[in-house]
Amino acid sequence: MCANMFGVLKSLFGKPFDGGKRMDHGGQQHQQQHPMEQQHQSYHQQHPAMMRLYEVQKEVQSLGPQVCTFSGLQHDRDYKRVERELTRLLLEVDKVDTEGKPELQGARKRAAQEVEGLLRYLEENATHPSRIAIEDLSNEARQLVDDRVVAPQRSGGVAEINDELVDALQEIILRLTQVKTEGRVPLRKARYRALTRLCAVQDVVEGRTQQQTLSLPLSGETNESVHRINQVMVKVCVARGQLVALLMGLSGRDSCAHLSRILTEMQVELDALDVSGNAAIRNYRKQVVEEINGLLKHLDLEGEGEDTRRYDLGQNNSIREIEAVRAHVSHLREGVLRHCMMGDLSFRPKAELQSLLTHLDQVDTAKNPCIREARRRAVVEVQAIITFLDLREALARRQPGPAEHPSHRSVWLVLGSLSDLQAQALGFDGKRVDKSYMMLEELLTKQLLALDAVDPQGDETTKMARKQAVKFAQNILNYLDMKTDEWEY
User: Fold this and answer.
1) In the chain, what's the furthest Cα-to-Cα distance?
2) Strand partners, 30
């Protein structure tokens, strides 16, 4: 909407004049306007009502970019300010006296529609279900961090920083990456800002350094240095909690600038220590300095998300690299399916597919959860083709003997059906509401039920084969689900 929102107003307030014959895009000549008609239009352009609408247009154009990039909620201060300004402009447009002239009435109507469009766009994004979902997940993360880290430290206790907290944060981050933005800049921006802060908190929590004490025969002077480094390390632990509170919006008084000054003062204090005579003490100080630097790097998030290139991942080099791999995978998948339809099993680009997996493993995700998810999905696409080729080859090589257990034979029959269904899943290019999707999902579910009905009768080989077949069927269902979940960067 925003891409063509601002150019519209220029055409609302009168037409351009060329004073002679004009050429349209097809090269056809148009008759020159009559001088009286030109004078009539020029009169309306210079009319006080039209001049006032031009002034309103300039103000609307200045507010437009703010509307189109606003990523907050209705109760935010910026939302109320922009809404108030647009409402004022709407009243200004309504006050314009058109003197009953149709041309002026039309211009005023179109100007009002333009302002109303901005107001509507502002409200739609601030109240969009995806925006609410982003806020709900942010609040969930905020509560988690407050209960485990911030509140205990404020009360003089010890923060509960453990693997359970890290896993809980990771689960919320994954859910945030799944929020649909429909390509809307404000929603992308809101999701990106929430993700960067959560990932920063996760990084701070994962990168914590335990306070160390050196058990060395040290001189009194060196002991004093270790004591002072330990004191700084205690301050760093406190600063870590303050940083987490800042990132999650749980600190009402502190600011990033204030915490940055505190951390910088710690660095100065460490630099002033004379530890030249002991390598172990130097390493300890170096470790604490690195810890401080690790906290400082997260204090530049105040303006994070303002740069479109950061949250518009379509322009990200890693995403482009992943998309190039996916295009290659798509080409190989089409080739594999085409040869299988003809009964030709000679086309087996497994080495090429394995090299693509290696390529994906080397893609730099920069700890961006959306890029990580994009890479994971590309890996699943490659692995789906590899497992399809492996099963086809196993089915072609299979030579059952007369002593084969009946239950084992039943499992292989299901695997044969699953191979055909996986070919359909690989070639599926529709949506979940499609009849073909529902039919394919139902057939896969029936194969799972068929496997559940197989009685191994104590045969260990059959037990293992059935277990692998169930996993294979579930992987096909998961792959089909992934292909149709309309995920976006």
Assistant:
1) 103
2) 22
**CA dihedral (126, 127, 133, 138) positive or negative:** positive
- For residue 394, CA distances in Å to 170, 211, 337, 398 come to 38, 55, 17, 6
- The predicted-structure confidence for 163-214, as pLDDT tens digits, reads as follows 788 888 888 988 888 888 887 888 988 988 888 888 888 878 776 544 444 4
pTM over 0.85: no
Measured CA to CA, the distance from residue 144 to residue 173 in angstroms comes to 13
Burial of 384 (0-12, 13-18, 19+ CB in 10 A): buried
Kindly report the number of other CB atoms within 10 A of residue 179's CB atom.
21
Amino acid at 269: E
Instruction: Identify the residue whose tokens are 């309103």.
Output: 56
Which DSSP symbol is given to 31? Answer: P
Q: What is the Cα–Cα distance from 162 to 168, expressed in whole angstroms? A: 10
Q: For residue 13, what is the DSSP state?
A: S
Q: Are 194 and 138 in contact (CB under 8 A)?
A: yes
Residue 89: φ, ψ to 5°: -65, -35
23: part of which helix (H) or strand (E)?
Answer: strand 22-23
Q: Give the dihedral of Cα atoms 33, 34, 36, 38; nearest 10 deg.
A: 10
pLDDT tens sequence across 24-67: 444 444 444 444 444 444 545 678 888 888 888 889 989 999 99
The reported pLDDT for the residue numbered 44 is 57
**3-state SS assignment for residue 54:** helix
| Cα–Cα distance measured from residue 313 to residue 365, given in angstroms and rounded to the nearest whole number | 11
Q: Is there a contact between 180 and 488 (Cβ–Cβ < 8 Å)?
A: yes
Phi, then psi, of 30 in degrees rounded to 5: -120, 145
3-state SS string over 111-123?
HHHHHHHHHHHHH
Closest CA to 240 of 369, 152, 137, 365: 152
CA atoms within 13 A on the CB side of 348: 12
In the numeric block, the tokens 């097809």 are attached to: 26
Q: What are 303's two structure tokens?
A: 């303006």
Task: Assess contact for 204 and 292: CB atoms under 8 A.
Answer: no
Rounded CA-CA distance 139/250 in Å is 11
Instruction: Find all residues with CB under 8 Å of 114, minimum gap 6, and list them.
Output: 5, 8, 9, 12, 60
Strand partners, 29: 23
Q: Which of 296, 299, 292, 294 is nearest to 256 (CA)?
A: 299
